[in-house]
Amino acid sequence: MKIHNGLSKLGATLRDYVESIGYGARTFLSVLAASPGLLRRPRLLIEQLHFIGNYSMLIITLSGLFVGMVLGLQGYYTLNKYGAEQSLGLLVALGLSRELGPVITALLFAGRAGTSLTAEIGLMKAGEQLSAMEMMAVNPIQRVLAPRFWAGVISVPLLASVFSAVGVFGGYLVGVQLIGVDNGAFWSQMQDGVDIWKDIYNGFAKSVVFGIAITFIALYQGYEAQPTPEDVARATTRTVVISSLMIWWLDFMMTALMFSK
């Protein structure tokens, strides 16, 4: 009897999991299908770009600066052991453009903008605003989800670029201005060693994929949350947890594909 009950619970869990994946895929396709409507109302996209991207700029800039400074400091002490401190600029640039820039930006975006999106959509559902839109023959996916989705997809690569650029400046402040690494060597090593396609383009591609994943997870969790304060709070927590795990998994898979050749 206990075995039968255990199998029943396992089957129900698997069924719910498959149903959630299928419904999520259908919602994602619905968002894509509703996206061309933004061409008629670009103001919706611009407003969300300001809310999602511009309001995240401060934390991204400050985090990039300090990460670059720490990377420059730790990199110098490591390279100095082998007499290769002149390659500090290359180390900072590669570390930021390939890995730290896209990943840390995505994590910060999930914590700041992702939770905000989930809470906003969840509260709109709890306040029956989405139902009211349907009653007025307004598609909530086109009016609410699509602008926020594309704003997130556009914002994450731009924020990751800002993070990397500010991080390089932070590494320059520590390495050149504070420690005394040769200025010409810092920039020339970086210029010679960083490949625009293999390094910068791959990092940009990562940030685009992260933006798609994080933004959709945040919107889906809010859209599917039960219209209660408790479930909206749980959905916000799920957004951070699922987004963080998804970022690390996607980062591993994309790194293996991009740099395995």
Structural notes for this entry:
This protein is mainly alpha-helical and 261 residues long. It contains nine helices and no strands. The chain is elongated, with a radius of gyration of 22 Å.
Quick check: average pLDDT? 86
Major β-sheet profile: none
Indicate the percent of residues in helices: over 70%
Whole-number total of structural domains: 1
Order of helices and strands: HHHHHHHHH
Short description:
With 261 residues, the protein is mostly helical. It has 9 helices and no strands.
List the helices and strands and how they pair.
Blueprint: H1 2-34, H2 42-53, H3 57-80, H4 88-126, H5 129-135, H6 140-179, H7 183-193, H8 196-224, H9 229-258
Helix pairs in contact: 1-6, 2-6, 3-4, 3-6, 4-6, 4-7, 4-8, 4-9, 6-8, 8-9
Highlighted features:
261 residues, mainly alpha, 0% strand
